[in-house]
Design a protein that fits this description.
Blueprint: E1 4-10, E2 16-25, H1 31-50, E3 56-63, E4 68-75, H2 78-86, H3 91-104, E5 112-121, E6 130-133, H4 138-142, E7 144-146, H5 154-159
Length: about 160
């Protein structure tokens, strides 16, 4: 990752698809319950990295607390996100089927929570600024350009429209 000196912004064009997905450890002692969930999340990210055609552009791993871990994901489109989530050959499909089986069988005991939120953000409803940063977040997903290309103020960047 090379450092971009000065102020930059993300080179996103059109709608932006953002998925927040994560887990919460409800009972630390139930390691046998939450470690497999964490490993499954990492396995899905590795699978997506190996196959860029599935549509994941970039991701950032984060923690909100010692209990809560999540990934901010940037996708090419909601259609590609849905296609991955339901693809029979994808690990997500297998993992989700297992969660559903455990839940139906009454074997989910509240030791680990899972969640996701998906946002489709229309062009003109997002803006970004980075100072002396390598490409990160939205810029890692869509590219990074000098701030002047989109406007020095947040108001200008919100007003920017792509030509495509």
């Amino acid at each position: 990752m090379s450092l971009e000196v000065g102020r930059t912004t993300a080179d996103a064009r059109g709608d932006v698809v953002v998925l927040l997905i994560g887990m919460r450890v409800n009972h630390f002692w139930a390691v046998h319950q939450w470690v497999p969930v964490m490993l499954a999340m990492l396995r899905m990210l590795a699978e997506l990295k190996k196959d860029p055609g599935r549509g994941l552009l970039s991701r950032v791993l984060l923690t909100a607390s010692p209990r809560t871990y999540y990934v901010v994901q940037y996708w090419e489109s909601k259609e590609k996100l849905y296609a991955y989530a339901s693809a029979p050959d994808a690990f997500h499909h297998k993992a989700w089927a297992k969660v559903n089986r455990l839940e139906r069988g009454g074997k989910v005991r509240g030791h680990v929570g899972i969640w996701h939120e998906t946002y489709v953000v229309p062009e003109g409803s997002y803006e970004a600024i980075y100072g002396d940063m390598p490409a990160f977040g939205l810029a890692a997903a869509h590219g990074q350009v000098p701030l002047e290309r989109r406007g020095r103020s947040a108001k200008d960047r919100f007003a920017h429209r792509s030509t495509t």
